[in-house]
Amino acid sequence: MAEETRKSLQDLLTKVNGLYCILITDRDGVPLLKVSSDKVPDQATRPNIISTFGLAVDQGSKLGLGKTSTLICSYSQYQVIQMNRLPLIVTFITSDSCNTGHIFELEKQLNPIISELNLAVAES
User: Fold this and answer.
1) Can you give the CATH number for the domain in which 108 is found?
2) What is the pTM of this model?
3) Count of domains for the chain
4) Domain enclosing residue 13, as ranges
5) What is the tens place of the pLDDT at every residue in 89-110?
6) CB 45 within 8 A of CB 51
7) Residue 20: CB partners within 8 Å, gap ≥ 6?
8) b/e 26-54 (16+ beta carbons within 10 angstroms → b)
């Protein structure tokens, strides 16, 4: 299963222009699945960076607008899009010119993978 899942993610990575990395982690930033190109900076996928998403979600909920589902951060050369699928976090690292709408469409294709991983994480 893991190899098929990794291949599916790799296929998605090549279909979207400017998508450099798909990373699925637990809420602490521990990587469960990762596919990436050589264009992604190593420091962007460190667990301590990814785990700050949880803190940002907590702060965002204090605005009184409901549960935070997605964060998008734009930098000079990259975008980082993180989706809250607790107990999992799905992180996409893209070029600054990548179409963010395409990334949101990928979420629908990732739902079966995320569901399986959710079950595996919940059981452990």
Assistant:
1) 3.30.450.30
2) 0.89
3) 1
4) 2-123
5) 999 999 999 999 999 998 888 9
6) no
7) 13, 36, 37, 39, 40, 78, 93, 94, 95
8) bbebeeebebbeeebeeebbeeeebbebb
